[in-house]
Amino acid sequence: MGFVPIDRSFRTTWSIIESHEGHPVWSKNDGESGRIHGNIAGLHVESCTGCMKCVTTCPVEVFVAWISEEGDAVVDPVLDAECILCLACELVCPTEAIHIHRQPGSQDTLDSLLRGA
Ligand code: SF4
Ligand code: SF4
Question: What is the pLDDT of residue 53?
C-alpha cells in the first residue's frame, strides 16, 4: 500500500482524542485514517517511513525517533511547541507525512530558504 499524504485540513476536520508527550493526538474517527501527532508540526503516523530526514533537518530538534502503538519505527514531534515554522521538514519528507501550521511569516521563511538567503 502506498503512503497517503497528511490531511492538511486535520486541525479543523479531525478531533483531538488524547495527549502524548505534551502534544495533541488527532483522529478522523473513521477507523482507517490513522493518527496525527502534534499541533504546529502535525505528523501523520501512518504516512511516516521512519527515514529520519526530518530529524536531521529540523534546526530545533522537534522530531525524535519513536516506536508507535502499532510497533512501527516512526518519529514523534515531541518539541512541537518549539517549531520556528521554517518548513524545512515538509520539504525533505518523502511521503508528505508532515504539515506545519501556516502562520504569518512562515512562507517568507520558506522563500528565504529556497533562495539560499
Ligand atoms: S518547520 Fe522547521 S522548526 Fe518546525 S518542525 Fe519543521 S524543520 Fe523543525
Ligand atoms: S521525513 Fe517524513 S517519512 Fe521521514 S521520518 Fe520524517 S516524517 Fe517520517
Answer: 98
